[in-house]
Amino acid sequence: MREKDFQAFLEVGVSLSAERDYNRLLEKILLCVMELSHCDAGTLYLLEDGALRFKIMRNNTMHTYAGGDGSDCGLPPVALNRESVCALALLDDKTIRVADVWHCAEYDLTGPMRYDAMTGYHTQSMVVVPMRNREGGKIGVLQLINAQDAQGQVCPFAEEIVLAVESIASQAAITVQNVRYLQQIKNLFHSFVRVMSSAVDERTPYNGSHTRHMAQYGARFLDYLNERSLAAGRGVAFDSGHREEVLMSVWLHDIGKLVTPLEVMNKMHRLLPEQYADFVHRMEVVRLRGEIDRLSGRMTLEEAGQLMADTQEAQALVDAINGCGFVTDDKLAALDELGRRTYRDSDGSRKSWLTPAEYAMLSIRRGTLSDQERAVMEDHVAVTGKLLDQIEFSEDLSHVAQWASSHHELLNGSGYPNHLTGDSIPPEVRIITILDIFDALVADDRPYKPGMPVDRALDILTSMAEKEGKLDPALTRLFIESRCWLKEGER
Question: From CA 224, how far away is CA 484, in angstroms rounded?
Answer without folding.
Answer: 8
